[in-house]
Amino acid sequence: MERYIAIDNVCAWPNLTVLPDGTLAVAIYNQPIHGQWQGDVEVWASTDDGRLWEKRGVAAVGEPPGNRMDVSAGCAANGDLIVISSGSSPALEPGIYDPDFDFRGKFLDARVCRSADGGRTWARADTVPVPGEGDAWCIPFGDIVEGPDGLVSPFYSGPADDSRNTAWILRSEDDGRTWGDGSIIAADDFNETAILQLGAGRWLAACRTHADAHMQLFASDDDGRSWQDRGPLSLPAQCPSHLTRLADGRILFTFAMRNLGLRAVAVRFSDDEGDSWSAPRVLLSYEGATDGGYPASSQREDGTIVTVFYSNKIPDHHRYHMGVARWRAD
After folding, report:
1. Is pLDDT above 90 for 126?
2. Confidence (pLDDT) at 330
3. Which CATH number is 271's domain given?
4. Tell me, what's the pLDDT at 104?
5. Could you tell me whether strands 241-245 and 228-232 are parallel, antiparallel, or unpaired per DSSP bridges?
6. Per residue in 12-67, pLDDT tens?
7. What is the structure's pLDDT at 296?
């Protein structure tokens, strides 16, 4: 396995998208702190399968005194890169440290950002309406996926007091310009969600629970209109996650282990469309960190899997960074 410090001095929370020409693009939060500072969502790209990365542009500009940091991202049918971003306000000015500061005082509306040149320049469109009756906010998270009737993106929503979280998918019938037609995946205790289209109307969704932060699997056979609970995919404090299809047909579930004494990125595999899963396997450790995870994976043409994640330190590097692992599933 190869490991790289890909983007230094950023908290990142990377969202990984493969562009039509095969370029890997990540949308990241560009400050070296867990959301407390004013900052932007930047897009970085790699044209050598994850080894080297360069900044291409700013998808969502921060709005002082707030920031932009939470995203869902993916490609439109016409090849444009779409980043939907929310954030919070107020946020501290960069360089100011306050351990008692609550950076999620008010959630900003989710804004649709679109690039026709691989993330270099951006147009910013309408905000996404809050889907839940009585909810005060909705936050995008995960992959924007092309479904049979248009694009699909995961979101989660809740009331102003954040007393509950509900996981949704929203749909776009105009190639990502406007969003609506929401369906609830799981209500009351679920937020950051990874989705995967299996075909023939079937979908999988792995939802992070609000209470103990494990990943719960849900499935749909009617294009996401209704969902069935398939049970847990991880233990408590093991979240969030990502789902992708490998070239050999297996499904790869990549997730973070954030337990005391076990800080790692781990994987599981399914060869029966998510009905059963292999035992968890630790892919890489970031032991010693107090913050880290948010992995996402993509398989390249030669079979190599590129997994991105973030950490605030590893034994030989003591800053926040986006890390990359290149490995093979065999």
Report:
1. no
2. 83
3. 2.120.10.10
4. 80
5. unpaired
6. 999 999 999 999 999 999 999 999 999 999 999 999 999 999 999 999 999 999 99
7. 98
Q: What is the DSSP string of 232-287?
A: ESS-TT---EEEEE-TTSPEEEEEEEEETTEEEEEEEEESSTTSS-PPPEEEEE-T
Local structure of residue 99 (DSSP, 8 states): T
β-pair type (166-172, 150-158): antiparallel
What is the 3-class SS of 295-321, one letter each residue?
EEEEECCCCCEEEEEEECCECCECCCE
Q: Is the pLDDT of residue 162 over 90?
A: no
Question: Given this model, what pLDDT does residue 89 score?
Answer: 95
Q: Which residues contact 155 (CB under 8 A, 6 or more apart)?
A: 72, 110, 128, 131, 138, 139, 140, 141, 167, 168, 169, 170, 182
Domain count for the chain, please give it.
1
**Distance, CA of 242 to CA of 205 (rounded, Å):** 9
Q: Is 15 exposed, middle or buried (0-12, 13-18, 19+ CB in 10 A)?
A: buried
Q: What domain range includes position 150?
A: 2-327
Mean pLDDT value of segment 237-249: 98
d(CA 207, CA 210): 9
**Cis omega before residue 14 (within 30°)?**
no
Does 105 score more than 90 pLDDT? Answer: no
Whether 17 and 73 have beta carbons less than 8 Å apart is answered as yes
Give DSSP secondary structure letters for 62-77. --TTS---EEEEEE-T
- ω into 131 cis (within 30 of 0): no
User: Whole-model pTM?
Assistant: 0.97
Rounded CA separation 164/173 (Å)? 29
Q: What is the mean pLDDT of the chain?
A: 96
Length of the chain: 330
